[in-house]
Design brief:
3-stranded antiparallel beta sheet; 8 helices; 7-stranded mixed beta sheet; disordered N terminus
Amino acid sequence: MDEEHRTHYEEEVEEVEIEVTDDEGSVVDEDTETTAKETPPSTSGTQKVVVSKEVAEMKHSSPEAQSKKASNSLSPNKNPFSGFGAWTEETLRQITIEAPILSGTDETTNALTRSNNPENRYWKAPIVYRYGPFSSTEIKFENVHVPYHTKEGYGNDFVYMCFPGFAADVFSEACKQRRPTRVTEAALVPDRNRWWKIANKVEGKFGYLNKTTGGFKPVSLETIFDSTHAGITVNAVITINFKASTMAKNPLKATTMGTLSVEVVRAYIEKLDVNVQMPARIPKNKNTRPPVATNADVASDDLMRRLAEIGI
């Protein structure tokens, strides 16, 4: 089945240096997503479908629910990275999650990042997973939830992806052995039961596996969301990158904060019409309270007289 996109053991993921994410210029990620214009779903070429009563009344679904039904042990002689994806906290802790050191060869600072943030430097490398003789830079998660959203570019330029909450704890513990690490998105409220990540550049990455031919057929998430007004669940093969950045052209230190970003290799759509709860965003600080005025700020009679003379 689709051998071309099975996990490549010991093979490094090719770095594409034109990519600019949250730590590398804020093109389409947690920051630019907040500034993208909110527009109603497009109707061009797609017939609008009214949300069904079943979907409207459906309870919010959580990726934690299915994981509780999965096995709590891995087969010692079977590669868990070539197709397994029903992780529980127990099985995820049975593999080694190896965060890269991030050295000079991992620096991704380039002309594009310098044009956006000339004083910043960036590093990125994929996390490696090991289990016995098996290793991979890709990992599969089943029952990943993707909510419906109306932001411009959603479903094409970026999506929210919801992984089980325990995965955030496991990755945090593993990565903090290398350096201080924030595994959650800075713009989203942390959720104990849901690990929300933003995936960029997802066009052509989501689709379905044809039962007859075994071939992968990409589909437009924008069309799905425009038609259903509901979320989806997928079985996602992803790469998780370990990243860090510095300002003022400073070198990377052991105390520099690390972050994680998700790249979708391939996502097999499992269900449509799923009532997926949207992540809560952290509101940006806005000073809405007026400044406090004192007696010294009160306009004098002379000022008022002069303002009247000039027609104010």
